[in-house]
Input
Amino acid sequence: MIDAQDVVVEYGKKASAVRAVDGISLRVAPGDSLALIGPSGCGKSSLLFAMAGLVRPKSGTILVNGDPLVRPRREIALILQNAGLLPWKTVWQNANLSLLLGKEYPKTTAAAVLDELGLGEVKRRYPSELSEGMKRRVGVARALSTSPSVMLMDEPLASLDTLTKERIQDLFLRLWAKHAFALVLVTHDIEEAAFLGRRVAVLTDRPARVKEMVENTSMGEQDYRKTAAFAETVRRLRAALER
Output
């Protein structure tokens, strides 16, 4: 579980400080999912990086499974817009990178995760030999290899074509249902927020505050994209963004 209380994030010092996040409180329990959506540059990624332990809030607290977050932790996985694969390492090596670098991690491999993501047959290939969709899945495999309890995603499917994006969204949904991690997704895509967020926090212009919290209880139902509930959630999100 991740619990953020009155989080303020600023960059710079004193008179030149720029406030990116202004007193946001959010809680995401195990097996829950939250999407963050708002105008470009409003502070969504700053809030996510604070939840990852990469940015220290100016004030407020962030708890992960009840403990104060002061640095990046094993149980928190972060997937970025760019999969961040090392070009000189194979799919298997990239997926295992967290395990190979951290002595505190169990000495297992990501073989089962690669198979789960349909990458077992390409594990000896290099990133240059993969499609963009495959690269994103390798990034997901690396995140899952440490069995996180919190999964943070920052625009993980940006720049992909619509069909590839929807296939990977379906994959994210299956993984979330199977592994029951707390999911926080930053996205500019209204339909992606509606598809993957059981709750969607609509943020204001910078500094980010929560303008509206949209409940999306039908999320995860079979063929959800084709339902009236999905269309209504998309409509509500669009209206909240335009207000």
Notes: Residues 103-108 have pLDDT under 50 and may be disordered. The beta strands are 2-11, 18-28, 33-37, 59-64, 67-68, 76-79, 150-154, 182-186, 199-203, 210-215.
